Amino acid sequence: MMGEDARSEGALSIGWVGCGRMGTAMARRLIEAGYDVSVTNRTRSKAEALGALGATVVDHPRDLASCDVVFIMVSANADLVDVTIGPEGVLADELSAPRVVVDCSTVSSETSATVREACAVRGADFLAAPVSGNPKVVASGKLTLAVSGPLAAFETVRPYVEALGHGVTYVGEGEVARLVKICHNMFLGVVTQTLAEITVLAERGGISRHAFLEFLNNSIMGSSFTRYKSPAFVNLDFTPTFTPVLLRKDFDLGMAAARELNVAMPVAALCTELVVSALGAGYDKEDFAVLLVEQARRAGLVLEPENVAVDDGLGVAT
Question: Which of 12, 85, 213, 314 is most buried (CB neighbours < 10 A)?
């Protein structure tokens, strides 16, 4: 964190569009770093919480046009288009536009390219900067980002992007960061499905989930992700961090890219159908860790919470 003297060190003015769970957590890090941040959200009340922390709350994205850098964190293609080139968008003011627009949303490459072109017309640089993590990961300082676009623009915003988390990777020009994020999320789904399968196998053989996952997480096969998902698997707490609806969207985007690039993805294709199966069973609002429940159902198991405190690797036993 930069500390409260960031404003006196020639820092750029920051605009933030999107105050959902992720947007709020990320913007909060910039505010707490001492940066001058103005925020807006479609539902203004969600932005007011950041206002209480010192941000300036404005009514519309177009009110951020005078900011040097505008970050965007929204949930879908149409939302990104609306908050940038819509009638109240960041680019709607013909007299002013940000120097750099940084989009942290997970959207298609086609939508990203459309917004990039619109930014270029207004003389603004556009960076695609999709993220890996959730609000708890953000709060722990472990968010990671892949960034693509003009290298000079990336160097301009690097201090602000790095304030959001611990891992920022510049991956190239254009929209390549979008494919990085889609590949990442497909792997997320494949790993979770595999973790569900082996956990159900162990339980069917008489091994408690917490014992099996403790062993796995302490082995060479364990990872930050398997440790992080262990509390949900053990205690069946499916408070959403990322839903099957969003995971299916990313699998669909990834499979479309695979077809376009003539890359066979047999395991990912199967996992896509298993995510659809979970949605068909009614799991559309829970965390995607409910893939465990569906796997257990197919094995004839009814899972029960084990009510064991499990370290999630972020410093909190849950």
Answer: 213
